[in-house]
Design brief:
The structure holds two protein chains of two kinds.
Chain A: H1 3-13, H2 18-31, H3 39-64, H4 73-90, H5 94-116, H6 122-141, H7 143-146, E1 152-153, E2 161-162, E3 165-166, H8 173-195, H9 197-207, H10 209-214, H11 219-245, E4 247-248, H12 250-253, H13 256-269, H14 276-295, H15 299-313, H16 318-329
Antiparallel strand pairs in A: 1-4, 2-3
Helix pairs in contact in A: 2-8, 3-8, 3-9, 3-11, 3-13, 3-14, 4-5, 4-6, 4-11, 5-11, 8-9, 8-11, 9-11, 13-14, 14-15
Chain B: E1 4-13, E2 16-26, E3 31-35, H1 42-49, E4 57-62, E5 65-66, H2 72-78, E6 80-82, H3 95-103, H4 110-123, H5 139-152, E7 157-161, H6 169-184, E8 188-192, H7 196-202, E9 205-210, E10 213-218, H8 220-223, H9 227-234
Parallel strand pairs in B: 3-8, 3-9, 6-7, 7-8
Antiparallel strand pairs in B: 1-2, 1-4, 4-5, 9-10
Classes of the chains: A mainly alpha, B alpha/beta.
Chain lengths: ~325, ~240
């Protein structure tokens, strides 16, 4: 097939044919660690995927449903602590604990949602910030359970044999593939939801709450469902965080900075898009690492500057803009 | 049994009684005009009946079942749809998406919901605008879009809040025909409207509110001759 035929086929099928994009993405993720076999590069890839997972999760609630949460660290922390504690205190397999972390984050999201969704707009955002601080303070002070500011440490992960080989937990690669799987799962779920009735309802809730009710949409239930799904993904991410770093403390996983980071990833990439968070994550992780190396904590200045430029000149996000340009180019 | 039965419906805003013990009945298939001077409580009455604001007391029975206390989406599910006086389309979504959203209420599969939405758009002469953003429509088109969104929820009873406000005479004429057409298709309509000629022409019955109190409930021809109504509109001495 020559180039123009491919072009025509792409235009006919749509550049954004989801199965094609998904398969290509999965292939890239499978091969990416081979690009440079050094642990720092692998660590960066893991952080990109971890951030993608957070961005996708936040985007479901903040981007699609327009409910801007500044408190998502609460769910990350709950997921991380649940995974660690179930392993340390009850001897659960960390992988079961990871799932339990997601489930527990979902469970606490429901009452938080029912409480905070009585408020609209900025008042909702402030309520999420307050709830997250409460959860952080509980984790900090409930020392008999959480060991308080000391944090929790897993010295060794239990052995796991896969296809006859023992998994080497000292290497970054197994964590890379777990992160890749989680990120793919999240993006797949996001894509599926965006096509479904729920996805349409989320947009309706974002656009106009009264009109949404007038169209027969239960706006409270829709928002609670969005929050629960979002929290489930963030809870999984939290469990992953705990296992990857093998250490959590309240300031690491419950911080406001982490909540804000999730907002940034989604906004820089593109609000309410499936691909946005991964693009946002690549940019933000790269910027943060490059400038951290040169300027130590001064890197935050550049991080902030970058954010301002994006919000001012690219409010639709990098992926959002790119996608619009591509669609224009193929005349769709 | 009447399709809609409103009994002693009341709304107090602090010391102000916006709707005072309103009662009326509406048979299926009728067009009811709800009129009154500015501030008479017409839109408040709509908001009460559609569940957008809680009633102080009274009941609204649809097919004999009281819907007071239900949230708006639950009332829509039972068959009452309403438009807004100030149009509220989902501005950043396309016309088709606007209507598909509402069609999802009765049809959870996207392809079928979209198909239902397309046929409703055709009925309202909006088929050519299906892929436009809702914010790009003219006011007249946006008002039709709101009606389309209502129809997609398959209502028994449709509340139209000033569907002709801000339209030019040709558009008013078309809007009258549309309301008649909806009525012919079996939907019962309550219409709040300031456009007197239009409302007198298409209503089967007219209810007049003044300071939240019902002062007339009659055929259009009798309402215009009712001294209380003339007084409410034009003041003492006009009658």
């Amino acid at each position: 097939m020559n180039n123009s035929a491919i072009g025509a086929a792409v235009a006919r099928k749509g550049v954004f044919d989801s199965r094609l994009m998904g398969a290509a993405g999965a292939l890239v993720l499978l091969l990416a660690p081979l690009a440079a076999p050094n642990p720092f590069f692998h660590h960066l890839l893991i952080m990109v995927l971890f951030s993608t997972l957070l961005g996708v999760a936040w985007n479901l609630l903040g981007g699609y449903a327009g409910q801007v949460s500044f408190g998502h660290a609460a769910f990350l922390g709950v997921g991380a602590y649940a995974t660690m504690l179930l392993h340390l205190k009850l001897g659960w397999s960390p992988w079961l604990g990871l799932a339990a972390g997601g489930a527990l984050a979902t469970l606490i999201a429901v009452p938080i949602g029912l409480l905070c969704f009585r408020l609209r707009g900025p008042y909702f955002s402030l309520a999420t910030l307050a709830v997250a601080e409460i959860v952080r303070l509980v984790a900090l002070n409930w020392e008999s359970l959480t060991a308080g500011p000391q944090g929790l440490l897993i010295t060794q992960l239990p052995e796991l044999t896969l296809f006859g080989h023992a998994v080497d937990w000292e290497s970054k690669l197994p964590f890379y593939y777990i992160a890749a799987l989680l990120a793919l799962l999240a993006m797949g779920a996001n894509h599926f939801i965006a096509q479904s009735r729920l996805g349409a309802y989320l947009l309706a809730v974002r656009e106009d709450m009264d009109s949404a009710e007038a169209a027969g949409i239960d706006t409270v239930r829709t928002r609670v469902v969005a929050l629960a799904l979002s929290a489930a993904l963030v809870g999984l991410a939290g469990g992953f965080y705990g296992l990857y770093f093998r250490y959590v403390d309240p300031d690491a996983v419950f911080s406001v900075a982490l909540s804000v980071e999730m907002v940034f990833i989604a906004v820089v990439g593109g609000i309410a898009t499936t691909g946005g968070p991964i693009v946002g994550a690549i940019f933000l992780v790269t910027i943060s690492e490059v400038f951290r190396e040169r300027f130590q904590s001064g890197h935050l200045i550049f991080y902030g500057l970058f954010m301002m430029l994006i919000v001012r000149y690219l409010p639709e996000g990098i992926w959002g803009k790119l996608r619009a340009l591509l669609r224009l180019a193929v005349g769709r | 049994m009447a399709l809609l039965e409103v009994n002693q419906l009341r709304k107090d805003f602090g010391g102000l009684r916006a709707v005072s013990d309103l009662s009326f009945r509406l048979e299926a298939g009728q067009i009811l005009g709800l009129i009154g001077p500015n501030g008479a409580g017409k839109t408040t009455a709509f908001n009460l009946m559609a569940g957008f604001i809680p009633a102080t007391s009274g009941e609204v029975r649809l097919d004999g079942e009281n819907v007071v206390g239900l949230r708006p989406h639950a009332i829509v599910r039972r068959g009452i749809a309403r438009t807004f006086q100030i149009v509220k389309p989902f501005r950043k979504l396309t016309v088709l998406e606007n209507v598909t959203l509402a069609a999802f209420l009765r049809e959870p599969v996207r392809a079928r919901a979209a198909a239902a939405a397309r046929s409703i758009l055709a009925l309202l002469d909006l088929a050519g605008k299906a892929d436009c953003d809702a914010s790009d429509l003219t006011l007249g088109q946006q008002k039709r879009l709101e009606i389309a969104r209502c129809l997609a929820t398959r209502p028994k009873l449709l509340f139209l809040d000033e569907p002709m406000g801000g339209l030019n005479p040709t558009e008013v004429e078309a809007a009258c025909e549309l309301v008649q057409k909806l009525s012919d298709s079996g939907i019962t309509v309550i219409l709040v409207e300031h456009h007197m000629r239009a409302i007198m022409k298409i209503s089967d019955r007219v209810v007049v509110l003044h300071h939240g109190v019902k002062i007339a409930d009659d055929a259009p021809a009798d309402v215009v001759r009712n001294p209380a109504v003339v007084k409410a509109y034009l003041g003492e001495g006009a009658a």
